[in-house]
Each structure stands twice: as C-alpha cells, then as structure tokens.
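// run 5 | inverse folding | seed 20
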C-alpha cells in the first residue's frame, strides 16, 4: 500500500513539473515571433500604402487643376446630344473643409452565415495642401442583419489622420511611414436610436475605439494584420476609382476640343 501511494505521489510530481516547464519554441516559431516584433516595431510600415497615398493625392490635385479649365467645365454640356452638367467633385464638411466621397458599394453579406447582412461602404478623403500628402482618410462600413427577430445596426470606421506619401531624405534614402496610429472605431445601435449620417464627421462618439498598435497593450497580431490588409485593399480601390475619374475628365476635354475643330 505504501509503495502504491509513493508511486502515485511520484507520478503527480512528474506531471506538475511537466506542466510548469516553460515551452521551448521551435526555430520556425522563434523566426515568426522575431518577424512579428520587427513589423510592430516599424509601426506596420508598408511601401505600397505610401505609394497609394501619393498616387491618390496627386490625382486628386490633378483633377482639381483640370476642373478649372473651361474645356473641362463645359465638356459634358456640348460633347453629347443632350447637355449635361459636370457633377460636383469635392464636398465640404461642417467645418467647411473639402473632401472627396466615394461610394464603394452596397449589397448583402454572408460573412456570418446563416446570418445575413445588408451593408454599405463609403470612403471620405481629405486632400492635403500639396500633392504629396493627404490630410485624412476615413473608411466607413455600415451593416444591419437582414433576418432574425432583433435587428442591430452597426458602423465600423478605419481612420488614418496622417496618410503620407513616400518620404525621401536628402541622400535619396527612402523611409517608410509609420501606420500604427490608424484608428478603428465601432458604433452600435445598442447605444443609440439615432441613424448615423453618411458624413465624415460624426456627432456621436464611438462605442469602442482602438489603435492599430498600442505598444503597452497590443492587439493580437492576426487582428492587426487584418486591419492593415483591409486598409490596403480599399486604398487600391480608391486609387483605381480616382484614376478613372481623371481619365474620364481628360477624355471629355479632348472630345470637346476635337468637336471645336470640326470645321466641315
């Protein structure tokens, strides 16, 4: 009996030591941890994001420049069979600051099937004072579940208050920009019955707010990666949309000039 008790106690001691032993990381796990630490230390800098910021900013400034020309202002009025007016390019917020609003689509989402959602996405872009930098980017995503007994309205916003283009030093060395200050906001109808307007400035504070990276209490890395990947995906769409707007304006301008040269 004493032998059996001694054996049980010995086994328990072994199990306790095994549980208490620190986990030994493999070489692959150590390399992954090292890369994650390096990415966080660099503030999730991304060369493509910098390039997209610059491209969007430069094209917005070019559009504003072209819109000041008579051949652009009046192109839609004369190039077609029926006169059309040039749509407004930039709007102004309640502080009288100009911004570009882009509708990024709406529809039905099956993200959390069998639940389905009606969603709407739009983006607000504040141009900067020079073509190399934007002042602010706000990505807004609204959704409401389309089935069930209780309907919950939600709004998520990704906000970059300092969307810079590439930074080139005096020696020609490029320094990627820090993106860790990108904010993530969440709004819910659990907190209000008001319907949030489709405007860049909201009167209500968000229900929950966080940053891409807080050094003292960081989000899980896979969630940080999801934020930056989503931001970059929509930046690509914005860049494509703005380039198309610029190309359409340039084409209409050329069509009007060609029409003015039809002497026969």
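// decoded
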């Amino acid at each position: 009996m004493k032998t059996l008790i001694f054996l049980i106690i010995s086994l328990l001691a072994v199990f306790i030591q095994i549980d208490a032993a620190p986990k030994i990381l493999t070489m692959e796990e150590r390399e992954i941890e090292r890369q994650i630490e390096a990415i966080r230390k660099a503030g999730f800098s991304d060369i493509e994001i910098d390039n997209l910021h610059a491209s969007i900013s430069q094209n917005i400034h070019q559009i504003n420049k072209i819109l000041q020309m008579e051949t652009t202002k009046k192109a839609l009025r004369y190039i077609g069979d029926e006169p059309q007016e040039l749509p407004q390019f930039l709007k102004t917020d309640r502080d009288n600051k100009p911004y570009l609003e882009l509708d990024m689509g709406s529809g039905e989402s099956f993200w959390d099937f069998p639940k389905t959602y009606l969603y709407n996405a739009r983006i607000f872009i504040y141009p900067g004072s020079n073509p190399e930098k934007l002042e602010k980017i706000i990505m807004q995503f609204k959704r409401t579940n389309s089935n069930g007994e209780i309907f919950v309205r939600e709004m998520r916003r990704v906000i970059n208050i300092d969307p810079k283009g590439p930074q080139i030093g005096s020696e020609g060395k490029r320094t990627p920009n820090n993106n860790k200050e990108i904010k993530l906001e969440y709004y819910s109808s659990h907190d209000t019955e008001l319907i949030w307007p489709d405007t860049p400035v909201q009167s209500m504070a968000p229900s929950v707010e966080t940053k891409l990276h807080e050094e003292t209490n960081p989000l899980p890395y896979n969630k940080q990666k999801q934020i930056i990947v989503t931001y970059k995906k929509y930046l690509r769409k914005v860049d494509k949309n703005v380039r198309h707007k610029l190309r359409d304006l340039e084409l209409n301008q050329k069509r009007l000039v060609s029409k003015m040269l039809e002497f026969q």
